[in-house]
Amino acid sequence: MRKTAVSTALACFMIVFLTGCWNSKEIQKMAYVTAIGLDYENGKYITYVQVLNFSNIARGETGEVGKNVPAWIGKGEGVTVTESFNSIYSTSQLRIFWGHVKAIVVSERFLKNSERVKEAYDMLNRYREVRYNILLYGTKEPLRDILSQKSILNLSPLDTLMDTYAQMYSQRSFILPTYGYKIIAQFNEPAVSATLPSLSIDRKSWSEDKRERPMFRIDGAYYFHAQQLTGWLSEKDLEGYRWLQTKLERSPINIPDNSSPDAAVVLIKPNVHFQYVVKHGKPYFSIHLTMMAYVDEMVRNLSKKQIEEKSAQVIKVQIIETYNKGLSIQADVLKLGEYLYRENPKLWQSLHHDGELIIEPDSLDSIDVKVTLMHTGKYKGRVD
To answer: Where found (predicted)?
Structure first.
């Protein structure tokens, strides 16, 4: 009996003097950052964070599809990236959690100094909560507009192109969004023209009843060479670039590519090979590309051979035009220099001087494109 009393007293003593769980966190009382905006003005880093209330986003049996999901946007400033982020804590009211960040959007003026980009990315990746697989974009738009953008049907910002691009890309492949760690790796490669997709807001294409509703669009890409921003190319300028992306799933063209096409063709499964020869100490490149295709619309009857030949011709012209557009801003869009760097680093090193491109207008010697028509859709077409 006495042992029981002693045990009970000891237990009560321990309960009274046990410390509380001071480090525990109530998950419903945290601010979850889902996207970050980076800007630079007047000698200061300006940081924006997008915070969502996940209870409004969860899709349960009682969830209301189309209900407006507000996005809270915080702003911080500082002479360093760290200081700008820390200034957000002073007014956040709740503990901020960074483990759900899915995208980082960087202003054009921020991009003009590549050291800022590397500094910001270094700081973010040093913090243990931030993941590595974060999509990175540049933009000409105000960052508040970007971070407050909603999706179609009033779905949350997590259902926009900025965060979830895969479903849209499967229907229209063009400029592939890229994870930040891949872009930083390109920055550190001397032979690579790093490519950063640019995010814009299309304010005219969609409306809710008669009210215009803006939607995201990837409208081009920024290019860097020797770790310096060289320029920006539009989606139109980059039409030829898409055919060299092995992850391209589906992309359409008109044949011929003019105001009066004979047909619309969808191209899939690109298979590309590069080759080079050295003449008079200079490399000359050839591209060999094979693709599958099917007819999406037939305006005028064409034979199978005509469809394949006209498609190949459109692709070839687009690749040449994109190559020349890249040279106009000192960017190796087709990554011919990178190919030589991998295949023959000694030759590349002998040609590389002071960060200049090793390619010239005549470096692209030939392009061989072969398109194979798979089918003409549900309607039978001429296959003679």
So the answer is: Membrane
